[in-house]
Task: structure prediction
Amino acid sequence: MINFICPVCKKELCEEEKLYRCDNGHCFDKSKFGYVNLLMSQKSSAKRHGDDRLMVRARRDFLDSGGYGFLRDELCGVCEKHLPDGGNVLDAGCGEGWYSAGIKAYFKQKGIEACFCGVDISKDALEFFCKRKCGVPCAVASLFDLPFADECLDAVLNIFSPEAFDEFRRVLKKGGCLVRVIPLEKHLMGLKAAIYDEPYLNDVPDAAINGFELVETRQIKSLLRFESGEDILNLFKMTPYYYKTGIADQQKINNLDYLETQAEFEIRIYIKE
Result:
């Protein structure tokens, strides 16, 4: 079982019907969707955090259509191999929960016991996560201040989310597993070629992480073909490119009804030393 901790006093939070409460009396209401907000708002002047509703909805629709199904299938196999039976698993930067919900369903089908939870800084993302009704508790929180006790988790999934390695190291047990997914150099090059006159390669971060041993890497590549303008727009709107382009470049995508693009990922599996 995974328990959140109070962001005020760091005591364990106990779940009640409509809220979470710690022994010191700090209470945090569940939203009407089911997630709990453990982000200390006074630490930030921003009114909203993380991915906005447009990006979240586009990503949900794209993923639910099976766009990255080949990646999730591979992740299911990776998690079956490396995650301990009965372990506590955090989806760090879980978004709308497509990956962790799918892995949890795969584990159930295989008879593998595990406790999943999710954390994301976007309320909109967690609203969509809760609507999946997959039984995964989730909280609004920063990955750089995770609401978990030291060394309480067996595994952390870090799928296209920020690199909060110090926190991942803190909350993972010794020997715990970090599963990281990153885009490779030519990921979505076809989409970028449709937008930019000179499409650029992605930067690929160094594999070394202090305090972790890299034990396995897998490269997953596929050519995606879209014959629907709606699918192309969902892909575009779920990426940062949509927010970094002007109206003229956005219009290039709006006019497309066919697109081929590479999807190239690397899965990196680490063990905490």
